[in-house]
Amino acid sequence: MGLSRVRAVFFDLDNTLIDTAGASRKGMLEVIKLLQSKYHYKEEAEIICNKVQVKLSKECFHPSNTCITDLRTSHWEEAIQETKGGAANRKLAEECYFLWKSTRLQHMTLAEEVKAMLTELRKEVRLLLLTNGERQTQREKIEACACQSYFDAIVVGGEQKEEKPAPSIFYYSCDLLGVQPGDCVMVGDTLETDIQGGLNAGLKATVWINKNGMVPLKSSPTPHYIVSSVLELPALLHSIDCKVSVST
User: Fold this and answer.
1) Which of 36, 77, 160, 245 is placed for a possible disulfide with 93 were both Cys, Cβ 3.0 to 4.6 Å?
2) Under CATH, to which class is 6-18+108-240 assigned?
3) Helix, strand or coil for residue 82?
4) Taking the model in full, what pTM does it have?
5) Contact predicate 156/37, CB 8 Å
6) Where in the chain is the domain with CATH 1.20.120.710?
7) Which reaction does it catalyse (predicted)?
8) What is the pLDDT confidence band of residue 246, given thresholds at 50, 70 and 90?
């Protein structure tokens, strides 16, 4: 492929390389089954899971105040109490949380075609996994999908002073690989973090994974390239390299 102009590719993890959203939905379905079969909840089971999903989407985690396990168990505890009333039920909340968590981790896998793509790309360029999120949560995902061996380095936002889209985490990633921002491409599914961060740091290119054909807001950052699947990346990188070769 001869990717002489692109020296490194940074990959997001969640919903870029692994289907985090799908795995989470499967976890919620298992909790619904538990609540309905063991505790005889009816429509309340789905309501509780929907409430937890909203709480997760608005989650603000401060490691100095609590641990992620306590915080997320509290999401379930609050959702159960809001739906069913009565006294708080921490034991049931813990049961729901750990079932949801274990189920979703079981379904966080790298597809065989993604493994093959990463293996081939790594013969040509350096690869770095750059993921936002709380340290424990992201490290558990990385362990679950067994992706460590496909990357030259892994950077977790929760272990750094700043996360994407701050330029500092991109500069740190460049230093780890011994490359310059202008040598690198950022690939991810989130415009506000992956793409904006790559633009902020002055990377060679940003690639937005838009699986569902979403139309972004006019105020959203504009990626250099848009693809519907991460598997389109090798051909895109080749075209980027060819454009650079023609212009030099």
Assistant:
1) 77
2) alpha beta
3) helix
4) 0.93
5) no
6) 19-105
7) N-glycoloylneuraminate 9-phosphate + H2O = N-glycoloylneuraminate + phosphate; N-acetylneuraminate 9-phosphate + H2O = N-acetylneuraminate + phosphate
8) very low
